[in-house]
Amino acid sequence: MLETTGKLFHRLCGRESGKAFLSQDRKEPTCAQILQELLEKAGVSATEWMTAADISKSYGYQVLRGERIPGRDILLRTALFLKLNLKETQRLLAVGGCGVLYPKIRRDAAVIFALNQKMSLLETEDLLVSLPERSLYNKEN
Question: What is the pTM of this model?
Answer without folding.
Answer: 0.81
